[in-house]
Amino acid sequence: QSAVCLPVFRFLYSDEVQIGPETVMTTLYTAKKYAVPALEAHCVEFLKKNLRADNAFMLLTQARLFDEPQLASLCLENIDKNTSDAINAEGFTDIDLDTLVAVLERDTLGIREVRLFNAVVRWSEAECQRQQLQVIPENKRKVLGKALSLIRFPLMTIEEFAAGN
Predict the structure, then answer these.
(1) Separation between Cα atoms, residue 125 and residue 5, nearest integer Å
(2) If 143 and its partner were Cys, which of 13, 37, 51, 127 is the partner (CB 3.0–4.6 Å)?
(3) pLDDT tens-place string over residues 96-128
(4) Which residues form the BACK domain (predicted)?
């Protein structure tokens, strides 16, 4: 735990900050916990500079968790512009249901609905495994809950819809 607090203490006593990809989240958490807004700002700035399609969903989840609406907004914009890369990134299937819903509610995603649907199916399979549920259609629908109704099935061709799982 002392290693986690080290960047905070260094910042408090010297105004120096050394933030890296492996320490930024714990530093942000600690800065928020101990109400050090200047250090929070450094962490958020670091995250903004390092925002990419392949980490946008992970950062969106963290931005929502840490109540950082500006960072969350930037993540959503990145996801809109790079939807295909973002949903194919490793971290996509790790997001929570509320984050998935927040993304599916958007009208600005740059992807065909069938590809989005396939990504949502992948997410539901991962969620079934996290909840130790058998990966069957009934359980996939159950873990998706309200997210399933956000898929715009009418935007799919009959062939795309018929090929879906």
Answers:
(1) 37
(2) 127
(3) 999 999 999 999 999 999 999 999 999 999 999
(4) 56-164
Q: How many CB atoms lie within 10 A of CB 63?
A: 25
Please name the amino acid found at residue 63.
A
pTM of the model: 0.82
Band of the pLDDT at 1, cuts 50, 70, 90?
Answer: very low
What would the pLDDT profile of 49-72 be if each residue is shown by its tens digit?
999 999 999 999 989 998 989 999
